[in-house]
Amino acid sequence: MGYKRVQYNCLYLLFASLFLLFTALAAQATTLPDSVDQALQSNPQLQSLIYNQRALEYDLKQAKGGYFPTIDLLLGYGTGQFSDDFTRRSDTDPDDDDWKSRSNASIELTQKIYDGGETADRVSISEAQLSSADYWTKATAQNVALEAITAHLNVFKHHELISLAEKNLQIHHNFYQSLADRERAGTGSLADVSQVQARLARAESTLYLSQADFYRISAEYIKVAGVAPKNLTYAADPDTVPSELATILQRLQQHNPELLAVSEEIKEANSRLTLARVNYKPKIDLELSSHYADNVDANESWQNSNTAMLNLRWNLFKGGQDKAGVSSALQHKRQSQSKRAAKLAELTAEAESTWAEYTSLRRQKAAYLDAVKYSRKTFEAYLKQFSFSQRSLLDVLSAENEYFQSAVRLIRVDINATLSAYHLLALSGDIRPSACTDTVPDFYHQLTQSLPMGNGSAVKPESTLPSATKPTDEQQIQRFVKTWVNAWQGRDITTYLRSYSDDFRPLDGKTHQQWQEQRINELTDTTSFELEISELNILKRTDSLYLARFIQSYRSNQQKDVVKKELLLEDSGDDWSILREQSQPVPQSDNETAAPEEAILPDAAIAALSADLTLPKTLKIGPCLNRGEVNRAEEILDRHKIDYHLSTGSGQVAMTHLREGVYPAAVAQKRLKTLKQMDVSASVVRKGKQLAVYVGSFHEEARATNFAEVLKQKKIEVTQIRAKAELSGKILTTKPLQQNVATEIAAELKTAHLPVTIFQQ
């Protein structure tokens, strides 16, 4: 029996220990509600507001005390001397110094019968102050909670980005090891090894930068929550976000604590106005009193009196003070009303902007899920083809980089969408994170899974296979020219314009922007045409500049010409781009002959251009119209450790205008009234003899698209018109950069939808 009891006790201790161990492990995980609670408990500003709220509760009790009677008790005992004709008679004792003991007692009760509403107004003022303080406390608590949510999710996001950067570094390291083995075996290329070494160094730099960002974000978490982040859990989009902007705006007006606090200030101002008018009214008090006195005024007997009085007091003249007080209170009330209108406009604009960002991020998330899926498949396919010399090393590395960049953007977009969702809940007055721990989505695990070449085997050559060879410059240019022709003939505006360098300058004196607008108009023309090139001849001019010379035949219903064309091409690293474009008509009699060998672009001009390309370039980003754009630009520049100068200036900014329609003047005015009745702001712009009705202008195309959808729900159809406008904002100017660095960063800035210009100082 003793042995069994010991055995049971051991089993019990074992299970208890395991339970405590699992409990301790679970306790180490910090959920989103945990971070919010910790921040709320440690925030000193919130504690200060709570103390202020408690003080106002006592102020309210003090104001309500005015409804009750006041009772005053007076008790007195002492001695006194009294001298008059009676005490100074000749028959009095001369030794009597007239000092006598005396005592008195009284009790008074005063009850306000009518005070013109003064007590009620003071109670109303205290109630409004308490309600306003309560809402301001809730608003501050929501802001603290939003900061905690932001810090929590940012730490989680950067932790995942570090894992992704580590996997990226591992991939490049395996690549380097495999290609170095090939080179040592005599079947590989030293140039391939050097190229991978460069990519490996960049991957290592990316990891270091991700780690630095993680430490910076962790410091922000400590500042908000008061403790170091430890095993923070994932949090998905809250399911309480309304599906329509109109619902959010309605909840904002009903539940936003900042707006409600300002509304309570209006109530307070209204009560103070009523209180100021109290001075115009009489006051009636009921006074009950009882007085007792002994040995008063040499009277050695005692006295007692009882009174009951109804007293009326009414100020008839006070020098205009009361009238001035009423006028002052009235202006304060109007000030509070204006303050609420301004706060409502501010919160509405913030809600609309956040809603546009939220819906855009959700769509981006779906797009990046596909991008990650297909870029991974592309990378896997390219890797296999590379093993059989069917793909160049540049193709494989570019595919891997595309996968890595898509994965990074997917994580950023997913977390930013959740932050936008909680921002919307904060604006609508309900930012309570779910107490349940959200499961990390599968794509997070898939992003950090080992890719096919995780052990480097996929790039190890078979003994019978030749080493992978990179296409020659001539082959790459042939492919580039073919893509350029196909984009032109297929009216693929994006690909066509992307074929031209940022340094491209038309030879007819137009600016790059003017040339782009002209080409867009020509490519969007519906006129059909045929385009053919022949006798392509590729000539090397410098290490990075080539001439592509060919005969171009263009035929349409309105035009037919044959020209000799030359494209001056620049090696931009990952591909080629057009620096200059020049053509000469071919005489009709020579249309069937070979292309003349005389150069259209002089060698001296090409040499000068080549020298210019080696000079440092400067990036000008902006004008940025809001802090969000400045933050995105600064994040990219800081990530690349680029020094820059922030200033204020003006420049051309792309705008998207929403045009509702074009009408005769009378119809347009009638349409304006109809839109105003639908709470839609609109304006008109003269267009010929008619008026064009516009219902909004946006810098960000995503916001314009989202607002167009909101209008569509109101049965208002609009057309998006894109144009340039001269606007002022913040401009970031970088230090001089090398050509390849400037081109790479400019491409990343454009991907982030930021206006950027490369220029040479």
Name the features.
single chain; 761 residues; alpha+beta; Outer membrane efflux proteins (OEP); Nuclear Transport Factor 2, Chain: A; 4 domains; 6-stranded antiparallel beta sheet; 4-stranded antiparallel beta sheet; disordered N terminus
Description of the structure:
This protein is of the alpha+beta class. The chain folds into 4 domains: 2-30; 34-84 and 99-297 and 304-465, Outer membrane efflux proteins (OEP), CATH 1.20.1600; 473-613, Nuclear Transport Factor 2, Chain: A, CATH 3.10.450.50; 618-759, Sporulation related repeat (Alpha-Beta Plaits), CATH 3.30.70. The chain is 53% helix and 22% strand. It is built from 18 helices and 14 strands. The strands form 3 sheets. Strands 11-12-10-13-9-14 form a 6-stranded antiparallel β-sheet. A 4-stranded antiparallel β-sheet has the order 1-2-3-4, with no helix packed on it. Strand 3 (283-296) and strand 4 form a beta hairpin. The longest helix is centred in the N-terminal third of the chain and has 67 residues, at 118-184. The chain is elongated and about 155 Å long. It starts with a helix and ends with a strand. Mean pLDDT is 80; it is low at 1-27, 454-469 and 590-596.
